[in-house]
């Protein structure tokens, strides 16, 4: 007999699967794998604000604008030979875009949100099998695999290229 821990939780009878937040994923990883049993790193954290045409309308002021960041994270479990990635976007509206402090605070909050979601997405691909004797087996869940898992680090960093556009 054993116990399987997946970094998701089910809600009600709807079979809706919700991802655990990154803090809970880290807590479970530390508990079952040890503090030196896993590591994570941010591969890329890019500002993608305005890529979907928002804030492009002429005459729009900086009074209210959206801040959006894309983050790619890699989680490594060296003792088990597993490496997985997660990608996510964080977004927030800045009520007063002309206030530098409010803009910087919102930017940092969105960066942390994107990084946390990306870490959670990476952990969703890892299965922890806890045996009755306390030993832990780790498996990579390939059913959760995404296109970003097969990209090289350079391709992942170049996923979103920011190109200046001249408006005439």
Automatic annotation (TrEMBL):
Stored Pfam families: DSRM_RDM1
Domain DM1: 20-127
Listed InterPro entries: DSRM_RDM1, Rad52_Rad59_Rad22_sf, RDM1
This protein's GO CC annotations: nucleolus
GO BP annotations, alphabetical order: DNA recombination; double-strand break repair
Signal peptide: none
Name of the protein this chain belongs to: RDM1 protein
Gene name as annotated: Rdm1
